[in-house]
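Standup notes
- HV: blocked on the assembly model, inputs below
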Amino acid sequence: AQSVTQLDSHVSVSEGTPVLLRCNYSSSYSPSLFWYVQHPNKGLQLLLKYTSAATLVKGINGFEAEFKKSETSFHLTKPSAHMSDAAEYFCVVSDDSNYQLIWGAGTKLIIKP
Amino acid sequence: DGGITQSPKYLFRKEGQNVTLSCEQNLNHDAMYWYRQDPGQGLRLIYYSQIVNDFQKGDIAEGYSVSREKKESFPLTVTSAQKNPTAFYLCASATTDRVKRRNTIYFGEGSWLTVV
């Protein structure tokens, strides 16, 4: 069975410092992986996705993620945090056989001035 | 512009009433989904539909019903049987890459339902 684990429920960084949001997954075959961002009281916006092409995926707003099969990880990074990055971030694995998505519990990113 | 439209944004329901949340997409997506999100929690799947006139129960389907009569529309009815309906509801639709069997899901802005 597929599963997703976001290792931190909250991450707090200072503005201008790097961001690392961790995600590990388990899957019986080559998965599709996604990161979504949700600002307060808003819907979810797709940040980036991995679908078996390049293992380093670049997304919007300066975010990127690296697919590491040996570590079953898909961590999200950004070199320099901005106040507008404060939001909740969700890591998702796709079961492409039945269009179902497996959701992580989310990581709340807090940006300190 | 293409996208997913949910309405209403805010809805109040009295005890014992059924209410319907609308979800329309003009992205020509085959698959559509309804999720529920409670404060401070992740998303839970209510129902999903891979094709017109077909839908499947998700993890928390009890007290909800859906229909998929048109590709563009996937309304969700919250029935009086749903004992704790106050939540944020998100509709989504997915592209499908039938060759590589990969999909990408896109979300609407959500609807807040409150029981009064």
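- HV (later): unblocked. Chain B touches chain A at residues 6, 31, 33, 41-43, 45, 48, 50, 88, 90, 92, 94, 96-97, 100-110, 112 (CB under 8 Å). The mean pLDDT of chain B is 89.
- Next: hand off to the docking folks.
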